Protein: BTB domain-containing protein
Organism: Roridomyces roridus
Amino acid sequence: MSSPLSSGEYSSGRSGSSSPLSAASHPRSVAATPGKDWSPRTGMTVVLPPGRSSLPASTGVSPSWSPAPGSLLLGETPPESPRLEDEGDFLDEEMENYSKLVATCTVNPRYYFDDEMSYFKVENQKFKVHRHFLVRDSVYFQELFAGPLGNFGVEESEAIPLEGIGSDEFECLLDFFYNGMYGHLGTTLSQWIILLSVATRFQFALLRALSIKSIEESPTSLDAIDKLVLAIKYNIPGWLAPAYTALCQRPNCLEEWEAEKIGLKRTVQIARAREAFRDGVRGSGMSPPRAMSPPMMSPGLYWNMKAPAMSMSMMQSRAASPAMDLDAARAARIVDEVFFSV
């Protein structure tokens, strides 16, 4: 069987060929003379050769040919496109109108920030941060940027030096402002103490109040001497009496390093309060406070108790609580007389 594309059938162009690609299957372009009713379509310009005043007797197109919709013929005038200059003028006009509209809007009294970035030098590190949080919450920074050095720190070469604060402390402050909205519940006790220190030095009133509250509610409690040191250093009067009372009731006396932290005067006052507290205990026939030992109880009675919640420690605390409440009240009275009486 011969191939439909064999040279004999394809190249000869015989009429008997059945090949779909044979030359006979392609229509020939024949000379055609436009009919008497023929005229160019709307918008079409027919360009005649020089010296001719009419169409040629024949054309090289099929009699049934017509231009495709939207096609551009030789000599046809293209539609006018918008000029780029006009588009630019239009956009400028629209932006100008919108700017006028924005100018008529009122300023929101709470959320319209005139925020700038400022450079700070803390120890041997440079920081570039927003002024907003610093100026919003700190009297120190409000006065700094409102004064003659208000534009100082805009350039890196003019970074504002912050003295009396470590780079880790300043970073802890910025961590709280930038991330504290969602993460401050995970702030540790040591971080709250750092924030208390920075807030006190740079007059962040709201942050200081939050730091004090968070330290008081921290699951990690402070030792009485550490709480007293913080109360003295950062001026927290509400922590003084509880710390003095705890030291007054403490079984062991102050250590040398503790006395160095609070100073000679307070060490002497605490010694006086402890002596008065023990004199009162001896006068009442009670023993000075010491580590509580569990009450005597038979093993069988202990293991056969019906309520598991009533453990040995709970029974001990319940039995000792009335005496402990009396001791605390008396210690508080002695502390008030020694430390706060005029």
The chain has 13 helices and three strands. The longest strand covers residues 117-122.
